[in-house]
Hints:
single chain, alpha+beta, six-stranded mixed beta sheet, about 30% helix, rod-shaped, DUF177 domain-containing protein
Amino acid sequence: MKFSTAEIKNKSFDGPFYFEQIVDVSELETLKNNDIKHIDPVQVKGMCTVDKDELIFSFSIIGKMILPCARTLVDVPYSFHFNVTEVFTTSEHIDEEDEENGVHQIFEETLDLKPYIKENIVLEAPYRVFSDEKGLEKGEGWAFYIEDEHQKEKQETIDPRLAKLQKLLNNDEEGKSNK
């Protein structure tokens, strides 16, 4: 998603310059520092305004990715939609305040938004997601319980050592009711 700085300045002379594009960010699947297993091409749409030497891009990123479930590592589809503002400057010198505010300096005649799109997707990806699928509560040697369900199940289960005593008490009660 590349733009010429001259083109942006010409198109935004009378007002904001609007753009919309589908961007392939599948390189995110190969990065080692994130959990993204798969990501579809994302839709990027927004506008750019020019203020002196600054190009202010305000855009939204819409897409869908596959992340692993934090409990079971099953694939979980995750849809996202968030807004981003990136500020660029064509000025040769920027001060510390601009650097702290995240102003990016442009050294060439073209501006590529794709690295900033990928960076924001990685930053916005959730730390962990959980699958809604049923049937994933038990595995070989492990089980996942919700505390209330586990307590209820424990109360309903009779200790095998006491099962014979329970049976004896039931027989005794039946004998009394027959008399």
